[in-house]
Specification:
Alpha-Beta Plaits, 241 residues, 3-stranded antiparallel sheet, alpha+beta
Length: 241
């Protein structure tokens, strides 16, 4: 924290009055500030040797020898700027693992079972806050869900203006349909370079969706890379017409 800003973060306890000397997570702009700092410190390594998203960091390489070199460079940079890592939270030489809520490996991307479980264990939402919470969970894993928008259209309607906001049978049907879909979510495949991509589009009355895919090496089987679904507002429709 800048010295002149520390008093703004003062808090009172039974043992006295304290203030933060460093910026704590929880402030509105902390995430953006931290990410900007990481981009500044590791700008020459980003998207080449490492990836950083706030406090999640991954060092990547195709060969063991390159990986050792990358780690040495990364640790030298961390020492230079006096940054510290939590030993219980890093793994060396991993070929797969959890990253930002997904299970990532060289050949596939799967949704984290914990993310699916959180949605599956939800009871039917009744309040606006619960509805937004459910849709927020779905939005995070939306790349795995085919036809998300048309399927959840009755639920999306509850959040629009001039709507009663009451949970009805259509909402319950959509809710159960999504939960059934999530019992066996698809596995996504990262795109292979220098291989043609396939794009399928579906345009409905109030929404559109797409699937980005790619053939395997045999060119006989298609793999899904990404699902995309979006509602079309009246303004969108007028523009397109």
């Amino acid at each position: 924290m800048a010295e002149e800003d520390r008093e703004k973060m003062t808090f009172i306890t039974l043992w006295g009055t304290f203030c933060y000397k460093v910026m704590p997570f929880g402030l509105k702009n902390v995430g953006a500030t931290y990410q900007r700092a990481m981009l500044t410190l590791f700008h020459d390594m980003m998207h080449k040797e490492i990836e950083v998203y706030v406090d999640d960091m991954i060092a990547k390489s195709k060969a063991d020898e390159d990986h050792t070199t990358t780690l040495q460079k990364l640790f030298d940079r961390l020492r230079k700027y006096q940054l510290k890592l939590n030993p219980s939270k890093y793994i060396f030489g991993a070929t797969s693992g959890k990253l930002l809520g997904f299970i990532v490996s060289e050949e596939r991307i799967k949704v984290d079972p914990d993310k699916v479980r959180a949605a599956m264990e939800m009871s039917s939402p009744k309040t606006e806050k619960e509805i937004r919470g459910f849709l927020g969970r779905l939005n995070y894993i939306s790349r795995f869900i085919s036809h998300l928008t048309p399927t959840c259209e009755p639920i999306f309607k509850l959040l629009r203006k001039n709507n009663s906001g009451k949970w009805n049978e259509d909402c319950e049907e959509a809710f159960n349909k999504i939960k059934q879909y999530l019992q066996s979510p698809p596995v996504l495949i990262p795109p292979a370079p220098r291989r043609p991509l396939i794009l399928y589009l579906t345009v409905l009355e109030s929404s559109m969706g797409g699937v980005l895919g790619q053939h395997d090496l045999s060119r006989k089987k298609e793999h899904v890379i990404y699902y995309l679904s979006k509602s079309l507002s009246i303004m969108n429709l007028d523009t397109q017409c």
